[in-house]
Amino acid sequence: MKSIPGDIPQYLLIKAQLQARIQSGALKSGDKLPSERELCAIFNTTRITIRESLAQLESSGLIWRADRRGWFVTPERLWLDPTQNTNFHKLCREQGGSQKPRY
Known about the structure:
The structure is a single chain. The chain is mostly helical and 103 residues long. It has a domain at 5-75: Winged helix-like DNA-binding domain superfamily/Winged helix DNA-binding domain (Arc Repressor Mutant, subunit A). The chain has helices spanning 10-24, 36-43, 47-59, 88-94, and strands at 63-66, 70-73. It has a two-stranded antiparallel sheet with strand order 1-2. The longest helix has 15 residues, at 10-24. It starts with 9 loop residues before the first helix and ends in a 9-residue tail after the last helix. The mean pLDDT is 85. Residues 8-76 form the HTH gntR-type domain. GO terms for molecular function: DNA binding; DNA-binding transcription factor activity.
């Protein structure tokens, strides 16, 4: 049986579209998402619906929110194998990061 778009809540459709943009690379690590008002205009919906889809993406770890600044794509995580004795700076370089602090 084919599911029609009306059966799926709108916030899940918006979440899927934003998730696809992040995973395709259209939105890169650290990029700022459009404001909630801009997303309302893009998807022609209410802020409550946008906030629900953003909250779903935040709970899945794809985006994070900074108070009064907006929503951002979560940076890639540093993967550490606890069974190996590796220098932290070397580990950062191997994974494409830098050991400089972020302020």
